[in-house]
Write a structure and sequence with these properties.
153 residues; alpha/beta; 51% helix
């Protein structure tokens, strides 16, 4: 899959509606980003993520009575996570859990653009790795099949 073919199916999780609206507005300018849902809490995010199966999430650190880290603890998927927060104190922790990026609020268009490009690159690379792995397994299977056919003869 080339970078041009990547579709970032994303969910936005932020308890501040104004912040969500701004992020949605900015992300809509990126043709490869498809916003499949939004949530304002950990519980609503879990439901949206299970229903929409995104490949990425834009996540605020502080959510009402919980944190974005609490949400990630409850997920078992390979979501690409981009934190969006007014509090940069959590940036180190975000990268320790392999977040793809950390954007400080207020969100600026150019900074968001760099994060989206990083997301597209990462998703394209992940797709290539999956295809390569599939090709290797398929080749191995074909070799085993040929060997088995030789044994039959």
């Amino acid at each position: 899959m080339t970078k041009d073919q990547v579709v970032c199916k994303t969910v936005i999780v932020d308890d501040d509606e104004k912040s969500r609206r701004l992020l949605i507005k900015l992300l809509r300018k990126h043709s490869q980003v498809k916003i499949v849902g939004e949530a304002d809490s950990v519980s609503s995010a879990l439901k949206v993520i299970r229903d929409t199966e995104p490949n990425s999430i834009f996540l605020d650190v502080k959510l009402e009575n919980e944190t974005g880290f609490n949400l990630l603890d409850k997920l078992s998927s390979n979501l690409k996570v981009i934190f969006v927060s007014a509090n940069s104190d959590f940036a180190i922790k975000a990268f320790e859990i392999d977040a793809l990026d950390f954007i400080k609020k207020p969100v600026k268009k150019d900074r968001l653009g760099r994060a989206v490009n990083r997301l597209i690159d990462d998703l394209a690379l992940s797709s290539e790795e999956i295809l390569k792995s599939f090709d290797e397994k398929n080749k191995s299977y074909e070799e085993e099949s040929v060997s088995s056919m030789d044994d039959i003869r």
